[in-house]
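Try this one yourself first.
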């Protein structure tokens, strides 16, 4: 199988076997392309992964950060990428000459974490992938929940501050969890803190000309910089407000957090757990486990491969 995680700024295509071992990874950065260039980039990465492994590739799975209409395999709308009203499944299947399976990036991450990862075997799982935006996925009753046409589980666009900042890209709302607790928001808050505290590690990095982004904040926080830790704690506590809502609504066994920002580990999840303990309803708050994704930043790619694997299995069973 080949699994492709098409993120807001990064694309990862992996050649993956049935045991989820990755035999080749093709990385691309996706910044500023138009739709045609973005599709070319995805095709190119898949071809690289396909050429790098021996044996036949049976199918390709895509996890994309889009609102999807599963009836037609359409990427209807994408907040952080130029994908709008694209018949993605058919276009890719034709260009690659392989069966293509398509789902939202949060859904595929939820799938692989529930089948093989941090929430293995659990029936009720909430998944958040925190990167440029915040993707969401739900496993309810042991199966991925997609809503009526496949566009559901947009957990990042739950509002936690009605009068908050405008959300990103094509989202018309204000104060969504994504607007205040994504990797983008982390970079923004860290930049503000860097200006306020010039003597901190963050402040010095800014003065030295570094771009204040999520990965740098996490690195400084792991090195013990208090300002970087404060930025992560702020984002973590906002995340906790969002998670308290999901805990009340779904009573999940696990809330799994993945995406690039989870490299911060407990520096992010500790403050989130504290807020959930304070704000969510008992008994749901007492049973939920808030854990990092087992597959970390690769949950999207591995989830897309799992989607393709299960998709091929279903086809074979139906034939
Ligand atoms: Zn939004």
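Now uncover the answer:
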């Amino acid at each position: 199988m080949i699994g492709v995680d098409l993120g807001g700024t990064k694309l990862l295509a992996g050649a993956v076997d049935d045991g989820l071992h990755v035999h080749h990874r093709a990385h691309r950065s996706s910044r500023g392309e138009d739709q045609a260039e973005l599709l070319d980039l995805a095709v190119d990465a898949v071809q690289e992964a396909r050429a790098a492994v021996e044996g036949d590739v049976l199918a390709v799975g895509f996890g994309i950060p889009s609102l999807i209409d599963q009836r037609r395999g359409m990427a209807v709308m994408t907040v952080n990428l130029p994908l709008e009203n694209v018949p993605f499944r058919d276009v890719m299947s034709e260009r690659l000459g392989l069966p293509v399976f398509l789902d939202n990036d949060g859904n595929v991450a939820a799938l692989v974490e529930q089948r093989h990862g941090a929430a293995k075997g659990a029936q009720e799982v909430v998944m958040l992938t925190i990167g440029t935006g915040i993707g969401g996925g739900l496993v309810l009753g042991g199966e991925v929940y997609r809503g009526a046409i496949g566009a559901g589980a947009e957990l990042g666009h739950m509002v936690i501050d009605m009068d908050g900042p405008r959300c990103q890209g094509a989202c018309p709302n204000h104060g969504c969890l994504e607007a205040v607790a994504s990797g983008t928001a982390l970079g923004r808050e860290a930049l503000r803190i860097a200006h306020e505290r010039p003597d901190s590690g963050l402040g010095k990095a800014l003065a030295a000309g570094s771009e204040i982004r999520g990965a740098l904040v996490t690195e400084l926080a792991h090195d013990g910089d208090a300002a970087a830790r404060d930025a992560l704690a702020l984002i973590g506590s906002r995340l906790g407000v969002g998670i308290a809502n999901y805990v009340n609504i779904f009573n999940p066994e696990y809330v799994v957090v993945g995406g690039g920002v989870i490299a911060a580990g407990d520096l992010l999840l500790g403050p989130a757990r504290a807020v959930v303990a304070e704000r969510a309803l008992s008994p749901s708050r007492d049973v939920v486990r808030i854990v990092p994704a087992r597959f970390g930043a690769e949950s999207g790619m591995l989830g897309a491969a799992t989607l393709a694997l299960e998709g091929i299995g279903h086809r074979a069973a139906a034939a």
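Discussion: The longest strand covers residues 22-29. The chain has eleven helices and twelve strands.
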